[in-house]
Amino acid sequence: EETLALRRKLGNRENVAWAVLQVGFSAQCAGDYDASTQAYEECLEIGHELGYKRLIARSLTQLGNAALLQGALDDARRLYEESLPLWREIGHRSGLVDSLRGLGNVARLEGNSAEAASHLGESLAVCQEIGAGEATASALHALGVLAGTQGELAEAAHLHREALTLWREMEEPGGVAQALWRLGALAAVQGRPEVGAQLLGASETLRE
Questions:
Q1: How far apart are CA 48 and CA 66, in angstroms?
Q2: 80 CB-near residues (< 8 Å, 6+ apart)
Q3: In whole angstroms, what is the distance from residue 9 CA to residue 144 CA?
Q4: What is the pTM of this model?
Q5: 40 in helix, strand or coil?
Q6: pLDDT digits (tens, 9 = 90+) for 118-149
Q7: Backbone dihedral region of 171: left (phi > 0), alpha (psi from -120 to 50 degrees) or beta?
Q8: How much is the pLDDT for 120?
């Protein structure tokens, strides 16, 4: 907040926008979606004012994330679809990954498995090209969730194990907990309740 106030005083609109974006992200992580949306909308306004496509694309993507987290799938889809061609145009591949993953998750929640697989698959491919470890793990996780909803339990387990390996290498406890929880749930469904209970217990320990 102090950094944002200082940048507002200095009057550099681009610097203000990136500071506001960080405030929005912090609010989103805290579950304050009204505050995060307000911050992202301010960033979007500044992006249009400056004609800065990267800032516009990032603001749209973050607004899409906030909408998705609140279950507003129509709004999330619209925002991701607006940001996606901008990321492609400016060649910003990490931004492209974010919008593709968002669209893939929207499609999965809408029950459109083919579209979800297409977006998430492209997201994973781009992640692997640029060596983005965290994003690769997130893409594998999302594809694992999709496979699980389609009843492809062996494939889902394989994808979650790959994600788990990456998250462990990066010492990312939140990701490890997610992967363990999914693997535990899959083990239980596959008739291995004791293994499932162990994995779910390990997941809960990490979340404490």
A1: 20
A2: 60, 61, 64, 99, 102, 103, 106
A3: 47
A4: 0.85
A5: helix
A6: 999 999 999 999 888 888 999 999 999 999 99
A7: left
A8: 95
